[in-house]
Amino acid sequence: MTRGKQKIEAQRKNAERNSKAKGSQLEARAVALKSSCPICKVQLANQNQLVDHYASKHPKEKPPSDSG
Predict the structure, then answer these.
(1) Are 57 and 50 in contact (CB under 8 A)?
(2) pLDDT at residue number 68
(3) CA gap 62, 36 in Å, rounded
(4) Which tens digit of pLDDT belongs to each residue from 21-35?
(5) Residue 54 contacts residue 63 (beta carbons within 8 Å)
(6) Domain assignment present for 48
(7) Residue 37 CA to chain centroid, in angstroms?
(8) Label partner for 56 (CA 20 to 30 A): which of 2, 23, 31, 63?
(9) What is the torsion angle, in degrees rounded to the nearest 10, for the CA atoms of residue 37, residue 41, residue 42 and residue 45?
(10) Which domain holds residue 68?
(11) Helix segments in the chain, DSSP class H
(12) 66 lies in some domain
């Protein structure tokens, strides 16, 4: 068991180690998701996924074009 200065130094090192940003998966996900369904607001990575989404979830609707 540590005492005094050793204890303070160990606590400081542990606090630094635990406070480092490990990167958020939510931030990375937001960057990767570029398309979204205007009907249900689902975010998708690319146009192909959007077309597949429309085919399965909104079969009566036509998917938006690439430019939109």
Answers:
(1) no
(2) 45
(3) 14
(4) 667 777 777 777 888
(5) yes
(6) yes
(7) 17
(8) 31
(9) 50
(10) 27-68
(11) 5-19, 25-32, 47-57
(12) yes
